[in-house]
Amino acid sequence: MDFYPKYLSKEKRLLHYILTLIIVLGAIFYNVLDYRFGAILTIDIGIFKFDFSYIFGIIIGGLLGDFWIMLVTVVVFICNCFYNLDSSYYTFIILLTAMITNKFMKSKATIKISSTIIYSMIASLICGNLWVGLLTIMGEMQTDSSLLSQIIVFLATFPEFLILYMGYYALCNYAPDKYKELFYMTHYYTEKSKANGGYVQTRLSKKVTTSLSILISIILISSLIMINRLFDNNILEADVYPIYIKLVLMIMCIAIPFISLYSFMMRMSTLYPIVRMSKYMQQFSNTTDETRGD
């Protein structure tokens, strides 16, 4: 644990915060506008439609940490609720895109071109085909299950993920450390961080993450069970089923960020001080009586 960005120089630390603020404000501003006006960054070429609307989700997921991902999600969700509560569940795709990209950076898949391409394909399938399929079930989009339609949907998002993920590959492997140090996720690929093992989760952090994943799964499963029972008892009609899918997505837009932010605050208030004290004690034990005075 290197307590980034405290070890940076004053100038680099200031630049780090400025760049982070620009990305966060840009992500909020763009996603609110995209939600308001719809599909701002799209390119139509014949039957193909290339969608670059996930760009800021990929950027905050690849460059910033969990805290900023969750904060942007909450702010965008609240802004979208003020405009149109019924469609605010669209915020979930921003969260999903950012989390997949963040996992891509933490897994160190960026060190190989092959794993980078594979991650791009997986992200395109989840945020493209699966998301469009879910929207089709809810009646928000009209698409069929033919192979050609699925290929078109896949190709709509694949270039966006591939270009940005390849950018991360180039940044993490070939960019000088002075540029990698400017962002939280890429600083793990500096020579200094690599010497300390790069991104490594502590045992306590892993337990917290596992507990949060279980809690989120319980919330999701409980919501689905409740909906199914309401249908079984004829309390709900089939035509309102999409409404409750939207409700589950809206719940996830709030539950995941707030649980993750709570986890972050717990790590900052308990885990980090313990690790810092442990490192100081280890350094103290490795000194001699002659050098302790220094």
What does this structure look like?
The structure is a single chain. The chain is 71% helix and 3% strand. It has 294 residues and is mainly α. It has a two-stranded antiparallel ribbon with strand order 1-2. A hairpin with a 2-residue loop joins β1 (42-45) and β2 (48-51). α2 (55-63) packs parallel to α6, α3 packs antiparallel against α10 (241-285) and α9 runs antiparallel to α10. It is globular, with a radius of gyration of 22 Å.
Note the quaternary state here.
single chain
Radius of gyration, in Å, reads 22 Å
Q: Going across the biggest sheet, name each strand in turn.
A: 1-2
What summary fits the major beta sheet?
A: 2 strands, antiparallel
Judged by helices, strands and strand pairing, the structural class is mainly alpha
The counted number of beta strands is: 2
Low-pLDDT regions: none
Q: What is the H-and-E element order? A: HEEHHHHHHHHH
Strand content: under 5%
Q: How much helix, percentage-wise, in residues?
A: over 70%
The general outline is globular
Helix segment tally: 10
Separation of the first and last Cα atoms = 24 Å
What's the average pLDDT? 78
Short description:
The protein has 294 residues and is an all-alpha fold. Helices cover 71% and strands 3% of the residues.
